[in-house]
Design a protein that fits this description.
The radius of gyration is 40 Å and the shape is elongated. It has helices at residues 2-32, 75-85, 87-93, 95-107, 196-199, 201-264, 273-305, 333-343, 345-367, 387-392, 414-481, 487-521, 525-528; strands at residues 49-50, 71-73, 113-128, 135-152, 157-170, 177-189, 317-319, 371-384, 399-408, 531-532. The two termini are 67 Å apart. The strands form three sheets. A six-stranded antiparallel sheet has the order 3-4-5-6-8-9. The protein is an alpha+beta fold and 544 residues long. The chain has a domain at 203-351 and 428-532: Up-down Bundle (Outer membrane efflux proteins (OEP)). It has 13 helices and ten strands.
Length: 544
């Protein structure tokens, strides 16, 4: 009965104190830490979404239903398939969730912990007899039991609650002796380890690391979307190149037949036949190269899209969209540079690295201080010849109190000073790295802007070249028929027209790819494609 009453009181005591400790700890931690550092306190968003169709949690994404047979896709469907099925993205998408587990580890420092210890034993020995002239044998049985609840707070305060009981039954005495104690110990850091800033620094760093992984995921997603679009247009170019070469080969064979007929009627010398035959052979060789190139790009596109279903590598791909000149008015280059300074994931990750360095300085500056802790221990005890009476006697006048200060400081304190110097230099290095990255990003944007303008001008120039080459071939063909040209000149004109036709289509594809690169370099590609991904909000550094 006494045991039941004791443990009932003990459970009530610990339940109330435990709830108070947990509540206080959670309140302090959540009020001091902001996961997004200038954003709302929400869980890390590791989903990649698209406005056309939302993609939820990575492990719950159902593969897009794609009909078997020829894969007929538009550029938008290609991007969606890639975001849903690409295996590289599946791997990268897990990084923020993995990184967030380090946050839980750091938060665990402020979780309450309970412990219990029960021991029992016997001592058989001799001691000086009470008469003082001889020894006497004795036997002592003892049982010790203690249970404690401890909580560490971000303020640098440690609170420990204890409840314990002891029993001693010695042959030297007629009755057993019981003592029961309830106590509390509070330890407060006064110098090193004092304050929420230093004690929450590791947790804040872990949350910054999670945000960095989100920006890395965004950067990878941008690269992947750009790669899909570039491969899409490369495949369209390869298909069109095959069509052009096939048409050119058809014309070359037709020219071979006409040459043979002219030779047969005596209007051309047989020596003219070699140039035409060489041109047909060259066109056949170009067709072989074009078909092999198209197959290689098809495999690359299938790897990026990874459509569900068996026989992925045997599937043919049919493109809905063909390269066309978009009606885009390019903004001023300074605007693209300004956007890149805000949106480029690599710059935002570098800014987070600086914020992380600031927190490291908080930790190392605190480490320069001596360790000085104030501790106070209070307890109430009950003593009696029985366990039950010892519990009841807790309300008596017996108590214990202890207060003191604990101090420790190593001579020279070289370890802490070295850590602080390293933190200062690392913080300066991160700042210099950000300045360097900013310059590199600006060069990338300006170079991409120049490339967009160059490729756009090449479209008009290549179109004019193609028209002149068509006219040159027509002229040389007519001259050959009347005997005023040679088969070699006609073959050369055919080859020039083939090159200019392919160059015209390539110029358009290069312009589309140059736009993609510009939008990727300024960090706006996902926004322009209507894709929502982690790391959308820019990181702002506080001005000091």
């Amino acid at each position: 009965m006494m045991f039941a009453r004791f443990y009932h009181r003990l459970l009530e005591f610990y339940a109330v104190c435990g709830l108070l400790l947990v509540s206080a700890s959670c309140t302090l931690v959540e009020e001091r830490i902001d996961r997004s550092a200038e954003g709302p306190n929400v869980p890390a968003d590791t989903a990649v979404q698209m406005q056309l169709e939302a993609i939820k949690e990575p492990d719950k994404i159902a593969p897009r239903t794609v009909p078997p047979g020829i894969l007929k896709i538009s550029i938008t469907e290609a991007i969606l398939l890639c975001l849903e099925n690409n295996r590289s993205l599946v791997v990268q998408r897990l990084n923020p969730s993995i990184q967030q587990t380090f946050e839980d580890q750091e938060r665990a420092v402020f979780d309450p912990a309970t412990s219990a210890d029960v021991s029992a034993g016997r001592v058989e020995g001799e001691r000086l007899a009470r008469s003082g002239s001889e020894t006497e044998d004795y036997t002592t049985d003892f049982v010790d039991g203690i249970i404690s609840l401890e909580q560490y707070f971000p303020t640098g305060t440690t609170v420990s609650l204890e409840a314990g009981t002891q029993m001693n039954d010695s042959s030297l005495y007629e009755d057993s002796f019981y003592s029961t104690r309830l106590g509390m110990t509070v330890t407060q850091a006064l110098l090193r380890g004092y304050g929420t800033d230093v004690n929450l620094a590791r947790l804040q760093q872990a949350r910054l690391d999670t945000r960095m992984s989100e920006y890395e995921l965004r950067g990878f997603t941008e690269f992947l979307v750009a790669e899909v679009e570039r491969t899409y247009w490369n495949y369209a170019l390869a298909r069109r190149q095959i069509e052009i070469v096939e048409e050119s080969l058809k014309v070359a064979r037709q020219q071979l037949n006409e040459t043979e007929e002219l030779i047969a009627v005596g209007r051309l010398a047989r020596a003219e036949l070699a140039a035409v035959q060489a041109e047909v052979a060259a066109q056949e060789q170009a067709l072989i190269e074009a078909r092999a190139n198209k197959e290689s790009i098809r495999l690359q596109l299938l790897r990026l899209l990874n459509p569900a279903g068996p026989g992925i590598w045997q599937r043919e791909v049919d493109l809905v969209h063909q390269p066309t000149l978009p009606e885009i008015k390019l903004e001023d280059v300074e605007l693209h540079v300004a956007v890149s300074m805000r949106m480029r994931p690599i710059l935002n990750a570098a800014r987070l690295e600086i914020l992380r360095g600031d927190l490291e300085l908080v930790k190392t500056q605190n480490g320069l201080l001596p360790l000085m802790d104030l501790f106070i221990t209070l307890g109430k005890s009950g003593y009696a010849n029985s366990f039950g009476e010892s519990i009841d006697n807790i309300n008596e006048d017996s108590y214990d109190a202890l207060a003191g200060v604990r101090f420790n400081y190593p001579f020279f304190n070289r370890d802490a000073k070295a850590l602080h110097r390293r933190a200062l230099q690392t913080r300066e290095q991160a700042q210099k790295a950000l300045e360097n990255l900013s310059q590199l990003v600006e060069v990338d944007v300006r170079t991409a802007y120049i490339e967009v303008n160059r490729t756009k001008q090449q479209i008009a120039a290549s179109s004019v070249t193609r028209m002149f080459d068509e006219e040159k071939l027509r002229t040389e063909t007519e001259k050959l028929r009347v005997g005023k040209s040679t088969s070699f000149l006609v073959a050369q004109a055919q080859r020039d027209l083939l090159v200019s036709r392919i160059a015209e289509v390539r110029a358009l594809a290069n312009y589309l790819k140059a736009l993609i690169d510009l939008y990727r370099h300024d960090g706006s590609l996902l926004e322009r494609r209507g894709i929502s991904a982690p790391g959308r909000e820019p990181v702002r550094l506080s001005k000091k």
